[in-house]
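Lab manual, section 2.4: Encoding a predicted structure.

Procedure: take the sequence of the chain (434 residues), apply the prediction step described in section 2.3, and record the output as structure tokens. A sample record is shown.
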Amino acid sequence: MFKWILRAALVVLLVGNSAFLVVQIGERRGWFVLGVVDRETQRFRQVLEVVRQVYVDPAAATPEKLTDSALTEMVHALDPHSEYLNRRDYVKVKSDLKSEFGGIGVQIELRDDKVVVIAPIAGTPGDRAGILRGDRILRVDGQELAAPVLRSAVDRLRGAPGTKVRLALERPTLAKPVELELVRELIKVETIRAATMVAPDIGYIQLTQFTERTAGEFHTALARLEAAGLSALVIDLRNNPGGLLGAAVDVLSPFFREGELAVYTQGRDTSSRRELKAAGGGRERHFPIAVLVNSGSASAAEIVTGALHDTHRAVVIGERTFGKGSVQTLLPLAGGEALRLTTAKYYTPGGQVIHGRGIAPDVELPISAEDDRKLGIQRLRADLTDPAAFKERFDFEPIPDRQLEAAIDVLHGVLAFAPPAPRALEQLASQPQP
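Recorded output:
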């Protein structure tokens, strides 16, 4: 009996090995018809194995590095907004959406392939340490920034609150680099940077992005301005890159009726249409609104603009918006990674597609890139009210905000033209766009 079992086991083993060899040879010689995904996966595995075995630098050709690079480039090739997120990047994205992170509190940009400080955020470690506009970041913790330098700077400046970071800064007015040691703090980015009365009857709210906290901050700011006697409102969305779709709809709710369409998305088939409707603000608000936009207003900022414009609740002033009207969905993967993938496009309540087109203003008033940069710093450092102190810190005198002034003039005109204010805005917003 034992010998019979042994013979049977040997036969099964031989048959199994033979079948495996046949499959291997058949796949190589094209005997079997594979599915498209299986065939392309096999092609990728073949290239991966050849590179791993033959490439001159084995440390740069590990399967992990090669796969990571391949996934990054593959997803990015779809469109500029889709991306593969490794574990570190996914954690960073989730932190950004919560509007808080550990860092030193400076805004930076890439200028001539160099990382340059736009301005420090008031009250942060960077501000207290005396970091100035125009300072160039040379080294972080004794190491020069590696490519891509802007992402490298962001990643290395951020860290756990309470940890130290050393900076070497090049300052145009000094011959030697400035060496600073700072302690990171929890930086809470206020998505409502300004909420004030810019005229006795006109309120002003600036939104810098749309995150989990934006709607609550906006509702609080709006209530405070209404208590101060608001009769009209300026919503400033200039250089607002967008953010969460739900936050944009929640910002619209105080001005919309409950259940009223704010925006809808449409994916690859008609059944994927998704309508997002306002929750309503609890009471009707009929005061006129002006929305300030420019080429840096994108995504969720364009949704708010388009919804207010299409429903004749606001007049739009400034420049044509960026035209980033696609929906990116965060899709978690195994191992703490994720995909940020374009899954649909935004449409305004009137059925206008935003993506690639943007929203044209009712009142077109462009400004130069240099003036836009200066105004951005002024809005960021509204705490410096003394012109002399401002010039000493940032090396230019405050300039007038012509777009904001135009918004105030338009709203005063609407208030004088009303009642009813909604009809006045409807007539103004329905004029042919440039």
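Check your result against the sample. The domain at 91-188 is CATH 2.30.42.10 (Pdz3 Domain).
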